[in-house]
Amino acid sequence: MSLSVLDHITLGVQPLWGRSREWLALQLSLDPASPEPFDAGHLLRTLREVWPDSALPLTLLPRSRELLAALLAQVDSSSPTLVVQGSWLAQDPLMIDSVHLAHRRGAPLWWRGSAHDLPDADLAGFFARSHLAVDESDALAALRAIDITRPDQSPLPLGQVFEQLPSQALAAHALDQRNAWALADWPVDDVLMRLPSPVLGPSNKATARLQRAVASDQSPEQLEDLLALEPVLAWRFLTWCNSAAVGLRNPVESIRHGLMLMGTTKLRDWLSDQHHGASTHIDVLPIKARMVLRAALTEAFIDAGVEEGLKREVWLCGLVAEADALLGEPLSAALERLPLSPRIADAHLRRSGPYANATALATAAMGSHASAMRNAAAEDDTGLEHINRALLRALSGLPRQLWG
């Protein structure tokens, strides 16, 4: 067996969204990538070593019965929450004994299945909550309950985790009326389709945070960190810096460069204008947070060396990957309007250049597409362990402003 368990699995990530539309936890999917026996104890020790107490809570979603069985034998009260596929227990009664023993060791467990396939009373006591897929009939029944303003008649159980909710209305119903603990998917397409305008402003919270940072004389580095957490605001800042109204002699290719040239007074006035037109549309927050997650993963998946400017360029490359959805224009047109590095356009428009594989890895990791992850890792020629460690490093270091 290889020395590292991270060589034998493929990790993916999915945020869990709470009522504030901010992250409550991160769910790691685990797919087997090797026929060798899985060392679950080694994985749990690795997670304890790399995951600080200040980071978001983790849940583990094994994608095979073998991985689940190995983890059930090792998890305890200090382990991340383990998601147990209910249908596998029905297929293997011996696994129920493993669930019982894991529960006795204090392991946090969630049941995963459909709303029509809940555990019986004897088994339900082993699970802190259920992680439920919503089928078409339940979705329609929930929509009817909304239409007649009787949310108590909804088929969605109170206080659970839901996935596969296809619309903004159902997501809001689950979180706001059924007190869902979290959603494991976000209906991105439906939310964007229902925006009052195809051009979205920056979030009110982000502009206010930056105004406070400027007022307290935070450093350009700290201001850049905050700007890089709001995709629309970052894009507008670069557009403003390169506008004829500002009249700079040379193009501005980065947020840091723009901050150094603008100065505090101009920046304060610009932020005031942005805050007046800021958005309070909370259902867009998960879409923006996913863009920041993509940026963090893209930066982690490429070796930018010690050059800080290059790291920031890679972050920006990841941040603008889905900018067309929020800017109301094709990404190709948006990129043409800014003097960004040609490496960014190469990665997104031509799937070429030094950042292309990192962007492909970030997309695969966020979609939990194990085969695409393995293919991209093979092209990267660094191996799964390197890719998985980079993913964990990025996730454990996500800025607290994303959920705090």
Structure description:
With 404 residues, this protein is of the alpha/beta class. It folds into three domains: 5-133, Alpha-Beta Barrel (TIM Barrel), CATH 3.20.20; 204-276, no CATH class; 282-402, no CATH class. It has 20 helices and eight strands. It has helices at 40-50, 65-72, 86-91, 93-104, 121-124, 136-147, 168-177, 188-193, 204-215, 220-227, 231-241, 255-276, 285-300, 308-319, 323-327, 331-336, 342-349, 356-366, 370-380, 384-396; strands at residues 9-17, 23-32, 58-62, 81-85, 109-114, 129-133, 161-163, 182-183. Strands 1-2-3-4-5-6-7-8 form an eight-stranded mixed sheet. Helix 18 (356-366) packs antiparallel against helix 19 (370-380). The longest helix is centred in the middle third of the chain and has 22 residues, at 255-276. The two termini are 41 Å apart. The mean pLDDT is 91.
